[in-house]
Description:
The protein has 469 residues and is an alpha/beta fold. The protein folds into two domains: 2-284, no CATH class; 299-467, Sortase, Chain: A (Beta Barrel), CATH 2.40.260. The protein is 52% helix and 15% strand. It is built from 14 helices and nine strands. The protein has an eight-stranded mixed beta barrel with strand order 2-3-4-5-8-9-7-6. A hairpin with a 4-residue loop joins β2 and β3. α3 (63-89) packs across α8 (175-197), α4 (92-99) packs antiparallel against α12 and α5 packs antiparallel against α11 (235-243). The two termini are 42 Å apart.
Amino acid sequence: MIWGLLLTLHLVGLVGYNLLLRKAVLTHRFHPWVLATLLETGIALPIIVAIPFLSIDLTRFTAQSIVLSVGVVGLSMVLLFAITKALYSLEASTYSVVYNLRIILATLLAAALLGEFPTQLQLLGGLLIVAAIVIVRQKGSRAVTRRGVLWALLAAAIISIENVIEKQLINDIGVFTGAPVIALATSVVMWAIVVAKRYSVPRKYLLTKQVIGLMVLRSLAAWGFIFAMAAGALVSIATVVSASGLIIIVLCGIVFLHERDHLRRKILAVVLAAFGTALILIGTQPPVSHVVIVKKAQTITNSTDIPSEEKPNKDYVWRGSLQDPKKIVIPSIGVDAYIQNVGIDQKNEIAVPNNIHIAGWFADSVLPGKKGLSIIDGHLDGLTQNGIFDHLIQVQPGVTFSIEFGDGTIRLFKVRSVHAVPLDSAAEMLFSQDPSLSNELKLITCGGQYNKNTHLYDKRIIVSSTMTE
Length: 469
């Protein structure tokens, strides 16, 4: 589970930079915007080093993705400024409790925009987090605390919106194009503001271990989260895992930053927030140990550069309707996999599945076995593993395979032909139906040589089949 490892790295970075940022606020008194700019610089520096090794394709930006990218740049700047302003007024422990509101906001946004609907347990967990925010206290002026809470709430709202937009951009233009461009643009704009406003940048503090550590940990937190989503993590799960750092931050704040006032209230707030986080996490998991069929099918309409490589287990929740194809089994090449519905993606092509171990039925084609042409696609490989159709080229004419549907019915298909065709002529072959066949099912995947510049294979493997009587 690659995204799980990435989220762990994100968690380490998140806890570390929150504590170091609070310490920097207390010791160096940087201007909030300068601190925010240093945080963003920490995110951008790895990209500057990696640029020679990245294949950034600016042609993938559409008018919509440009607007979204500009929005993310603006949100990123305000977010970092809000975090630093909040930590000028709040202890790290208090801030982390309030900032956990982002779990609720992210879950609601994911439900509204990405179809990741909250369960009753998630809603109950959200109420507990709100209660924790109301209960928590710290020393000092109530006015200062109130001001810090408002900045923390602003940060929570912004990060929730930004995470959802980032996931959309990852799907639209790819993480290796979108993330570097946005990070560099944000850093340049923020430094331009530092220069234009003539903010003081204490040079003697820039190369201290504290500031360097702050930038490294902020980079780890940001890139761990972004690449986790690109690797298939749901926004809701990624946010909950991130929020679990609350307990660590509070404990470290007590031990290392001596944030021990109103200790009972803080402990109670942490318990409530942690319990609420646990309920949200539990509520995110499939509620039963077998495949569940939902009434309304979910259709993938965005092709991602980094599909998930996590193999579906017994708890996998199939998102299809009774009439939709549910599983494909091709014994001769070891295929036994679920099928998800796919539509037209952001490049005006048939979308690919978001998991390399799952096939995709093109929902705008006919149902397999019905009169007309049906299409099922699948990945050849992922970053580290072979995909569902890695041996599709080895299928022999005459071989039979089966498609199981949501209602349990099974239809058998016989392979008629197998072709490896150049990429530029694949669409014509894929969408042309043999006039002698009343029904035709075509399977397609990548093949040939991989082009590192275009990020494409130069051929497509197309298998034509028809339903047996």
